[in-house]
């Protein structure tokens, strides 16, 4: 072991410095416990200042030992990604074995599943970040070997101060050959109840799809706002089959975390629940790769962002009430005709009309709405079309006062993507 650690001497931290940072492992500094032992928070002094870090102290009574300690050092020093927890250093001195990590100030995901202030959009981004970290382990670049985590669960997904996900605890991970599409490793079953791939538990054959299964469980936890198991009469009972059945019976509404429902975009919910269910297929061959999971979660995030940024749907009657002067009409056909001719709204500052294609258009009055521009700058053209949203800045008109008027065309029930800014 000493020969192995020689290669990583640059990461070594003196025990004296760790004791100082944790106040001699004061219980008040404990921020967590896991399969390795207790985790302490502390401020580590170094040549350039001070850094808040987490110290994971090996306790052999927890059942893990030298191999897990060495594996963490090897993995986290060789595999670095924005969605993997970073290794700051380690200590192997006076019988102590301590791993030092970056501090994830919001703790682990499992502690936030039931927190109503953790929004659906935040949850989606956390899932996406964790998926990206796991995808990196499964499909490393260049000559690095594939890593199968083997213990993916919500308590092993840490959250930094900006709620970015960090996959952690690689002590049980296994390394597979590089540049191979499939990895099959015969190994003793390890992991956590509720998250373990049933096929892995049955045959003791570990694959990267085993991690995919575990991640699918985490996705359902995020969706349902609870852990994947519960204590019933002193026995742990898995909820995974119940969740799968609810999906198959199209009864997701019965299991979704109640406080999230009204904030969920339906397409976002459908995208996440679909990929979560696919991750839980009995056969590993039917499960998606983590790269596909990442793609689906990116789509789910986009749906949610579009939904949140879209204005509430308005109808023509509401617009007519804001007309100057108010419109008088006796039928919807008459209202449509009036709108096709154009009306003034917004206290006379906006000209609104319905064009021949049925699209709703606005022209902003230059009075009080002008944007100074550089007289030598070109006119600005932009067009964006995404997920059924049409949003077009048709043209910019430079007048003699060096101002620009924007004319926009958009579907009424979506928020127009008007960019009011100085033109470059």
UniProtKB/TrEMBL annotation:
Q: What's this protein's name? A: Protein kinase domain-containing protein
Q: Which organism is it from?
A: Lactuca saligna
On whether Amino-acid biosynthesis is a keyword of this UniProt record, the answer is: no
Spell out the InterPro entries in the cross-references.
ANXUR1/2-like (IPR045272), Kinase-like_dom_sf (IPR011009), Prot_kinase_dom (IPR000719), Protein_kinase_ATP_BS (IPR017441), Ser-Thr/Tyr_kinase_cat_dom (IPR001245), Ser/Thr_kinase_AS (IPR008271)
Q: Where is the Protein kinase domain?
A: 25-301
Gene Ontology BP, a term: defense response to oomycetes
- Which GO terms of the molecular function aspect are on file? ATP binding; protein serine/threonine kinase activity; transmembrane receptor protein tyrosine kinase activity
Q: Give the taxonomic lineage as stored in the record.
A: Eukaryota, Viridiplantae, Streptophyta, Embryophyta, Tracheophyta
Residue ranges annotated as coiled coil are none
User: Would you say which domain of life the source belongs to?
Assistant: Eukaryota
Q: How does it sit in the membrane?
A: Single-pass type I membrane protein
């Amino acid at each position: 072991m000493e020969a192995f650690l020689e290669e990583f001497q640059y990461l070594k931290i003196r025990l004296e410095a760790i004791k100082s940072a944790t106040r001699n492992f004061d219980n008040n500094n404990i921020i967590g416990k896991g399969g390795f032992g207790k985790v302490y928070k502390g401020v580590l002094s170094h040549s350039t200042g001070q850094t808040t870090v987490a110290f994971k102290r090996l306790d052999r009574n927890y059942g893990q030992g030298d191999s897990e300690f060495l594996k963490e050092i090897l993995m986290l020093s060789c595999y670095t990604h924005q969605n993997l927890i970073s290794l700051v250093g380690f200590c192997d001195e006076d019988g102590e074995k301590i791993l030092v990590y970056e501090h994830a100030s919001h703790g682990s995901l499992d502690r936030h599943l039931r927190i109503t202030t953790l929004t659906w959009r935040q949850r989606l981004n956390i899932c996406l970040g964790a998926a990206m970290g796991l995808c990196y382990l499964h499909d490393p670049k260049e000559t690095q070997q594939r890593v199968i985590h083997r213990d993916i669960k919500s308590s092993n997904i840490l959250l930094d101060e900006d709620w970015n996900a960090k996959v952690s605890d690689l002590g049980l991970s296994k390394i597979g050959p590089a540049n191979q599409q499939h990895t099959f490793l015969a190994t003793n079953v390890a992991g956590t109840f509720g998250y373990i791939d049933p096929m892995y538990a049955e045959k003791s054959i570990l694959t990267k799809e085993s991690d995919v299964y575990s991640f699918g469980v985490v996705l359902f936890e995020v969706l349902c706002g609870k852990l994947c198991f519960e204590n019933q009469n002193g026995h742990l009972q898995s909820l995974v089959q119940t969740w799968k059945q609810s999906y198959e019976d199209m009864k997701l509404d019965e299991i979704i975390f109640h406080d999230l429902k009204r904030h969920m975009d339906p397409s976002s919910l459908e995208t996440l629940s679909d990929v979560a269910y696919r991750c839980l297929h009995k056969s590993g061959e039917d499960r998606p790769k983590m790269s596909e999971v990442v793609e689906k979660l990116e789509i789910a995030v986009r749906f949610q962002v579009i939904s949140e940024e879209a204005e509430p749907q308005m109808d023509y009657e509401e617009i007519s009430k804001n007309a100057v002067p108010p419109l008088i009409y006796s039928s919807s056909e008459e209202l449509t005709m009036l709108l096709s001719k154009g009306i003034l709204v917004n206290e006379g500052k906006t000209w609104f009309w319905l064009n021949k294609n049925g699209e709703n258009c606005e022209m902003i009055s230059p009075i009080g709405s002008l944007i100074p521009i550089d007289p030598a700058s070109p006119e600005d053209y932009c067009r964006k079309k995404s997920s059924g949203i049409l949003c077009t800045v048709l043209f910019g008109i430079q007048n003699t006062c060096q101002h620009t008027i924007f004319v926009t065309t958009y579907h009424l029930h979506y928020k127009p993507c008007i960019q009011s800014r100085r033109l470059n």
